[in-house]
User: Which sequence fits this backbone?
């Protein structure tokens, strides 16, 4: 490594650190505000035309099934997948409407 390479790396790091700090601060600010906002229904607004189910969840809809798998490996791997099956029967052979 020569002096030019070292100074280029330092300059790049000098620009990156303030940007990373700003991004972290923005994330904290956004998360803090999300907890303080009221939900839409609490404001008297009713999104959609149907009433929510007893759990206010996708599984309140008859026939809808939901499954998930989470993988945790060591300290750095946290990933997962959620599958939503929209109706009874074979989803490949028994087609469902996309909207009603």
Assistant:
């Amino acid at each position: 490594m020569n002096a030019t390479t070292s100074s280029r790396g330092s300059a790049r790091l000098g620009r990156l650190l303030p940007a990373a700090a700003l991004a972290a601060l923005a994330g904290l600010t956004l998360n803090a505000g999300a907890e303080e906002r009221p939900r839409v229904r609490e404001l008297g607004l009713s999104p959609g035309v149907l009433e929510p189910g007893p759990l206010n969840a996708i599984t309140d809809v008859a026939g809808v099934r939901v499954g998930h798998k989470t993988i945790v490996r060591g300290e750095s791997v946290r990933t997962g997948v959620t599958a939503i099956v929209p109706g009874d029967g074979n989803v490949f052979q028994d087609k469902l409407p996309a909207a009603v």
Q: What stands out?
A: The helical segments are 3-36. The first strand starts at residue 65 and ends at 73.
